[in-house]
């Protein structure tokens, strides 16, 4: 699987689009706002640049794409007003993979700028927004051009499926009946995922270290886990249920069993210790804050269907959220024809699970500071 070409959130504004099914990701951004504010004010305490470089990595599309930027501008504008000084110039880069729906973001910019000017008047500084297509597991920006880097709900996606799981020498049944780490996965599968994350995160840190100024701040939030055990339900059970939904279609001969056994998600939910280890190994950053918070699988937000105006079940909301994120990969591997049935089956299984269990995503949030050169 070529993740860079395949992975993208569902485009447009239809019923299964990411734009209409990203309430969980929006709640994560809102919950992490105090950490973002602390980091921004930390930058302004040390230096007050006339032009500030900001990058949002994994911006996706839809209502969340400009949410972080809006919050950052609010924080800086309020600080400038309190100090009686002009707002800086904002140089903003919105990054995602080339398949991202950048057009929808660009189409929303006029309304965004109009709102900022109405709310802030002449105190609103010049703001230049550009889209940067590419993997954040590589260099994206000029040396020492960024003051603040943000990424939310993105770094748990790997640059590739762990090579050990896709090798021609590896039997497809190595992680039989599963699409991610599970309680039944052999240790070699766990090790392969952990190694891939460590390699990716080190490259990510090294790339950002070159692009950021000394004293610059980075706030990262991603799906993770509290336990050092990667098979804990809080980090992988949503994938377990999705594998069960696929297996039910295998049983009905709607999917070949080999297709299921050969699919492995390019995803990894790390624990805090793994983040610390990579940051210490790379050596360019100081950890300022590292914590976590819980998010309901469905975001805790009631939504209505577009057609019947009847409330969706929790399982249906979860299934729509997950489908908006993973469908591009699943459709390529399993075929477009079974997507509706797959996610309907998944919704039923999630409803059953949530009726008996307390299910929360664990979201890790880390704020780090670029060391002096």
Report on this structure.
Helix content is 44%, strand content 17%. With 373 residues, the protein is α/β, with parallel strands linked by helices. Strands 3-2-1-4-5-7-6 form a seven-stranded mixed sheet, with helices on both faces. It is globular and about 65 Å long. About 2% of the residues have low confidence.
Low-confidence stretches: 303-308
Total number of beta strands: 7
Mean pLDDT: 87
- Over all CA atoms, what is the radius of gyration? 21 Å
How are the strands of the biggest sheet laid out side by side? Answer: 3-2-1-4-5-7-6
Order of helices and strands: HHHEHEHEEHHEHHHEHHE
* Largest sheet entry: 7 strands, mixed
- The number of helical elements comes to 12
What share of the residues lie within helices? 40-55%
Instruction: Tell me what portion of residues adopts beta-strand conformation.
Output: 15-25%
SSE topology:
Blueprint: H1 3-6, H2 23-31, H3 33-46, E1 51-57, H4 67-83, E2 89-96, H5 102-120, E3 127-133, E4 146-152, H6 163-166, H7 187-211, E5 212-224, H8 233-251, H9 257-261, H10 272-282, E6 285-296, H11 314-334, H12 339-354, E7 360-370
Parallel strand pairs: 1-2, 1-4, 2-3, 4-5
Antiparallel strand pairs: 5-7, 6-7
Helix pairs in contact: 3-4, 7-10, 8-12, 11-12
């Amino acid at each position: 699987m070529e993740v860079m070409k395949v992975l993208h959130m569902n485009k447009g504004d239809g019923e299964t689009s990411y734009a209409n099914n990203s309430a969980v990701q929006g709640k994560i951004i809102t919950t992490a706002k105090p950490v973002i504010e602390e980091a921004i004010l930390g930058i302004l305490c040390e230096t007050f640049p006339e032009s500030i470089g900001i990058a949002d990595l994994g911006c996706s599309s839809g209502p969340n794409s400009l949410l972080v930027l809006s919050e950052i501008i609010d924080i800086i504008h309020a600080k400038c007003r309190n100090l009686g000084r002009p707002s800086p110039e904002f140089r903003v880069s919105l990054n995602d993979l080339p398949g991202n729906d950048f057009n929808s973001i660009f189409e929303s910019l006029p309304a965004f700028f109009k709102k900022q000017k109405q709310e802030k008047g002449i105190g609103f500084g010049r703001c230049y927004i550009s889209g940067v297509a590419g993997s954040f597991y590589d260099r994206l920006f000029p040396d020492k051009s960024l003051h603040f880097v943000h990424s939310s709900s993105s770094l748990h996606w790997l640059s590739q499926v762990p090579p050990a799981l896709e090798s021609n020498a590896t039997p497809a049944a190595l992680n039989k009946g599963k699409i991610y780490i599970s309680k039944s996965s052999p240790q070699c599968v766990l090790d392969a995922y952990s190694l891939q994350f460590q390699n990716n995160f080190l490259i990510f840190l090294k790339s950002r270290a070159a692009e950021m100024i000394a004293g610059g701040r980075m706030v990262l939030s991603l799906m993770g886990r509290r336990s050092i055990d990667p098979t804990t339900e809080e980090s992988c059970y949503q994938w377990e249920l999705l594998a069960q939904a696929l297996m039910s279609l295998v049983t009905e001969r709607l999917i070949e069993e080999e297709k299921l056994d050969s699919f492995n998600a390019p995803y990894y939910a790390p624990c805090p210790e793994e983040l610390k280890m990579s940051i210490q190994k790379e050596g360019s950053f100081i950890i300022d804050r590292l914590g976590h918070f819980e998010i309901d699988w469905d975001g805790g937000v009631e939504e209505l269907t577009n057609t019947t105006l009847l409330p969706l079940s929790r399982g249906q909301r979860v299934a729509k959220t997950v489908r908006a994120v993973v469908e591009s990969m699943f459709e390529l591997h399993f075929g477009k024809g079974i997507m509706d049935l797959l996610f309907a089956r998944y919704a039923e299984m999630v409803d059953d699970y949530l009726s008996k269990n307390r299910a929360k995503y664990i979201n890790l949030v880390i704020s780090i500071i670029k060391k002096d050169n």
